[in-house]
Design goal:
Blueprint: H1 2-5, H2 35-40, H3 52-94, H4 98-103
Length: about 100
């Protein structure tokens, strides 16, 4: 009987691995978090639950921080695109022409 009640042993440390990219929330059917979705999210009410005002204040704070992070990410992506385009343009100007290569 003890054998049946014993919990299975874990082998190695596979349970400490970080989640794979396939474990993305969007792939599991959850929509991505946006500030609006966080602000609009409502929890189920329980008889002895948490303070709704405290939850709303916390969700507003999280939504504000997410909005700032998304704005910063957009700015970084635009700057990255600008730098890539400038580099391509510079490389085009600096690349030797076929005529210049033929002289060597």
């Amino acid at each position: 009987m003890r054998v049946l009640l014993r919990r299975p042993r874990r082998r190695g440390r596979h349970h400490l691995r970080p989640p794979s990219t396939s474990d993305n929330a969007a792939l599991r059917g959850h929509p991505s978090l946006t500030p609006e979705r966080i602000r609009e999210h409502r929890f189920t009410l329980r008889r002895r639950g948490l303070d709704p005002a405290e939850i709303t204040a916390f969700l507003d704070r999280v939504a504000d921080e997410l909005a700032v992070a998304r704005t910063a990410l957009t700015a970084v992506r635009e700057e990255n695109l600008r730098i890539k385009n400038a580099l391509r343009s510079w490389q085009t100007v600096q690349a030797p022409t076929a005529r210049e290569l033929a002289r060597w």
